[in-house]
Amino acid sequence: MPESGLTVGKMRGLEATSRPGGVFAILAFDHRQSFVKLMNPQTPERVTYAEVVAAKSAVVSALAPYTSAVLLDPVYGAAQAIASGALPGQTGLLVALEETGYGGEATARLSGLLPGWSVDKAKRMGADAIKFLVYYHPEAGEVAERQEALVAEVIQDCRRADLACFLEPVSYSLDPAHGKDSPEFAAGRPGLIAAIARRLGALGPDVLKLEFPVDARYDPDEANWARACRAISQASPCPWAVLSAGVEYATFTRQVETACRSGASGFIAGRAVWQEGISLPAPERDQWMGAVGARRLVELGEIAERHARPWRDFFPSLAESVREGWYLEYGE
Fold it and tell me: Which domains does the chain have, with CATH numbers?
């Protein structure tokens, strides 16, 4: 491995999923069951596979030109968007690796890989990077250790495939009396997200896809937001990008600016960009995406371009790390 810590394939993957300046402006669209429910909230069981694929391809076609990359799932989105031409060749592609949901108890969550899917298959179908979502709490004891072992396994698979790994740790509450939406959980959230970045970042992902560390419903003070984001930047040994986690767009724009001013390398935005348009009839949905969704991505991208820390800042000697005869030992 080069002294920089990045292999050539990983370098290429990060370049392919970021803007020329090294900033991530990524559309998250790997949602599965939650997306189906948005399509038909009253009777989601009536939504067909073909309808989901068509909707996903239409949204990707409308929004991909305004992103550095699109994150898609292998069930409805990734290969389908390539085959239909919805995903332009110049737009980066991240593909999700995990199975949706979790096993175990709500206060002791275990993640898993999507059966029949793998890092090697994603590499072969043309993915530039892998995204792996893992439910995680550093104080969950044996459950945390099992999750860390799974993360380490995925990271090793990505190293063997020379494929960039975006790791998405999703926090949860260990206290059944105070869930994730509670003020009690919110009070400890800044320290929790920083601790997650430190512990899982040490395992060697290439990018961390992180929740915003402050719950805006309980703490609207942007000075506190900035302090919490700076703590993440100090804790994380790798670049990090902020995810939207379903917050409304106006809140997310403020979160993106705060995070990027405080050391984040960009954003990976999902429902904050597109959720209101999904349940509309197809012609109205497509019009909404081309107007509202596209405008939101442009605005978020401009914020990131102005304020984000380029991912290359974490690897200052990339050019020197590839030396004469590098190919002789490449992949060994």
Answer: 8-328 (3.20.20.70)
